[in-house]
Each structure stands twice: as C-alpha cells, then as structure tokens.
C-alpha cells in the first residue's frame, strides 16, 4: 500500500460519521498543529455558529543594521513587517471545524529585492462520534523568511500538509489516537553561500504516529506517542533519512499557576548515506510561563532538535536553544520586558565534516502598553551576535530598533 493510499484511507473514514462528542487536537501535522481546539473568546465576531477572530499583527516598524547578516560591510534598512489574519471556529452537532488564514507583508525601503508577500492557510475537521472520532487536516503556506538559524538568506519557501487519523476514547480521561501526514517543503530561487536550497532542502516527509493522551488533573494532560518518519529528498536521494521517535508531552492549562508545555523525546535518526553518522539521542521543546508576585511574569523556552544543513558535506546539525524573559508591570497598563536567548549549533556528523560549534546570542528589551483585547504595543531594541570559529564569513552582528504590535503571551 502506498503512502498516499494510507493517508487518504484515514480521510475516507470521515464519510460515515453520524454522532457527537468532544475532540482534542491530537495527531495534527506541522501546519495544523497551531490550530485552536477550543473556540476563541477575545475579539470574536459571531456569524451563526461560526466564531471569527480577525487580527492584524505588526511585527516590526523600524531599522535593521544588518539586513543580510553579513560579516563585513553590513547593510542597514528601514523595514515594515505586518501579518493580517483571521481564525475561525465552529462546533456543530456532528463536526468541529477549526481554520486559519493569514497574510505576510514585508517592506524594505532601500533593498526592494527583499520585499515580499506571503500567505498561510490551514484547517481541520473533527467528526464527533460517540467514542471513535476521525479527523482530517489540510494546510498550505508560502513565505519568504530565513528557515532557521543556520541560513542567512530570506528564502522563498512553500509548505503543504495533508493529514488524517482518528481518536478513540478509552475512558473518560484517556484517549488513544493514530494519525499520518504528508508534509512537502519546497524552495524557489534561493541560494545560501552559492548552494541552491531547492535540491539541498526540498523534501517530502511522511509521518505515522500512534499515541495515548490522558488528563492527569483538570489543568494538566500527558501525551505519550511513537512515530515513524521518512524524509525523501526528491532531487538528491542520497540525503534521504528515516526516524523513529518516542516522546512524552506534558501540557498545563493557562488557568494553572505555571502554564505551558514540556515535550521530551528520543530520536533514532538514520540517514541513508553510509558516510553520515546516525543520531540517537534526546530531542525536546518547552515553553512555560510563571507569574511573579502579581507584578511580573517569567518565561522560559528551550529547544533541542536535529536539523538538516543546507551543506551536504555537513548533512545535519544539532540545535540547542534556551530563551529566558521577564516582564515587569511599571504602572497602569505599561510594562517593561527583557529577553535573552543563546543557541548552539553542533556539526561534525559525517566522515568529511570536522566537529565544530556555531553560536548565536540575542538580547533585547522593550517597553509596552497592554490593550484590553490582550494585545501589546511596544518599542523594542535587539542585539544579535553569531560566531562560527571555523567559518568566520558566517559571523555577524545585528541591531534592530522597532515598534511592534503583538499578541500578549
């Protein structure tokens, strides 16, 4: 049975749905994972049974001292970046629908070749049966951004997701699920250090997952899962790889004293090329928020993952990133925030690639005003510094001063 048949067989289960119950967003793919599984309660417009939450996020209006992340002779420019969007949610008798559509607008005053527009759309339908509840998800995006901390160029990138699966209630508090998705990544006319990103990083990912989610308390849930994943590089099959991943995720609701999530996993990553060493080790992600004495908020984030390098000689690298922030109430609705992050990119997993470590440090501060609809208008200043001891041409320093309007955490 082909991968396409597996995914569409899961989707076909939806046709027979005839009953109602609740459903959580288990088994989602990379794009649909960000969809809400409960109806929005802030800034909502109601049209019949549909809840709409439109918005406009202004990420930055300001200056960037190093637009191209250059080691020498950096170029500065004035930038405006905005993202209008709308989220939709509807819960009917036999189906729950969640959708999102957003745009991306980037304006550069001097370097007009960096100007771009993009979009992102995604949606998921959960069929509400008595205990068995199938679901299907679709997503598509086209953006022009830096894909990760290794790549400096703003690359035209398109992503597509098709996903499907089912959830089954094993008890009042426990839920088993199985899911599969296909995720397609493509690059268009993008080069980093002379390397064409289209054949270097363009790939199809097929993922098959089974797991169990259980409610530990009214505010916490635990999900354990196992996945098998294939990465297929259409233009360079020597870069193909497959992974076996076991993970556990603890989620804490915003109503609890500490809120957020912690995910810890073990990845058995096996590249096809014999000269590339496998990676067998921990991966994970975490983001938690803790209110401090009713006048502040501490935020902690962490990421550990293996990521494909655009350089075939390096094959892949391990990223470790830690971010800490503190927000302090000054007076009225005005607050101040400081934030810092440190990233390590570890290389040296092929026979021809020497071991090395690149570092990226980012620190910033802002003063903001909080609006009633849980948004924050702020003035921000940020300094970034990357160092690659073995490849000094990848070093850079960057300063940004900008105004932003972002959703409060």
Protein model, in words:
With 409 residues, the chain is mainly beta. The chain has a single domain, classed as Maltoporin, Chain A, CATH 2.40.170. Helices cover 4% and strands 63% of the residues. It contains two helices and 21 strands. The strands form two sheets. It has an 18-stranded antiparallel barrel. A two-stranded antiparallel sheet has the order 9-10. Strand 4 and strand 5 form a beta hairpin. The chain starts with a helix and ends with a strand. The N terminus is likely disordered.
Give the topology, please.
Elements: H1 3-12, E1 45-47, E2 50-64, E3 77-91, E4 95-108, E5 116-127, E6 132-145, E7 155-169, E8 174-188, E9 191-192, E10 195-196, H2 197-201, E11 203-217, E12 220-232, E13 241-252, E14 259-271, E15 279-292, E16 296-308, E17 316-331, E18 334-347, E19 356-370, E20 375-387, E21 396-407
Task: Estimate percent helicity.
Answer: under 10%
Work out the oligomeric state of the chains in this entry: single chain
The CATH level-2 architecture is identified as Beta Barrel
Estimated radius of gyration: 22 Å
> How many strands?
21
Order of helices and strands: HEEEEEEEEEEHEEEEEEEEEEE
């Amino acid at each position: 049975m082909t991968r396409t048949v597996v995914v569409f067989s899961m989707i076909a289960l939806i046709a027979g749905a005839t009953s109602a119950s609740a459903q959580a967003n288990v088994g989602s793919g990379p794009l649909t994972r960000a969809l809400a599984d409960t109806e929005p309660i802030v800034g909502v417009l109601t049209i019949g049974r549909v809840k709409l939450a439109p918005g406009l996020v202004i990420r930055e209006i300001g200056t960037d001292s190093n637009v191209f992340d250059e080691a020498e002779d950096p170029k500065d420019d004035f930038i405006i970046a905005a993202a209008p969007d709308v989220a939709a949610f509807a819960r009917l008798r036999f189906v729950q629908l969640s959708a999102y559509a957003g745009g991306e607008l980037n304006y550069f005053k001097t370097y007009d070749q960096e100007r771009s527009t993009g979009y992102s759309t995604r949606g998921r339908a959960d069929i509400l049966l008595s205990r068995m509840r199938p679901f299907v998800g679709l997503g598509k995006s086209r953006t022009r951004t830096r894909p990760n901390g290794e790549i400096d160029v703003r690359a035209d990138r398109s992503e597509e997701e098709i996903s499907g699966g089912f959830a089954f209630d094993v008890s009042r508090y426990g839920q088993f699920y199985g899911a599969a998705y296909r995720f397609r990544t493509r690059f268009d006319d993008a080069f980093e250090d002379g390397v064409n990103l289209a054949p270097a990083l363009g790939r199809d990912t097929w993922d098959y997952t089974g797991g169990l989610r259980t409610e530990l308390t009214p505010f916490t849930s635990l999900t354990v899962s196992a996945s098998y994943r294939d990465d297929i590089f259409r233009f360079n099959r020597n870069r193909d790889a497959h992974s076996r991943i076991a993970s556990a995720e603890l989620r804490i609701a915003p109503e609890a004293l500490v809120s957020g999530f912690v995910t810890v996993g073990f990845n058995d990553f096996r590249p096809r090329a014999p000269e590339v060493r496998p990676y067998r080790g921990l991966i994970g992600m975490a983001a938690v928020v803790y209110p401090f004495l009713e006048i502040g908020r501490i935020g902690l984030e962490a990421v550990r993952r293996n990521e494909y390098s655009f350089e075939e000689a390096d094959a892949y690298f391990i990223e470790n990133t830690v971010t800490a922030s503190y927000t302090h109430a000054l007076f009225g609705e005005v607050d101040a925030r400081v934030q810092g992050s440190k990233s390590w990119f570890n290389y040296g997993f092929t026979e021809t690639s020497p071991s090395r470590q690149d570092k990226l440090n980012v620190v910033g501060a802002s003063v903001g005003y909080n609006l009633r609809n849980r948004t924050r208008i702020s003035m921000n200043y940020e300094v970034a510094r990357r160092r690659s001891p073995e490849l000094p041409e990848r070093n850079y320093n960057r300063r940004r001063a900008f105004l932003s309007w972002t959703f409060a955490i």
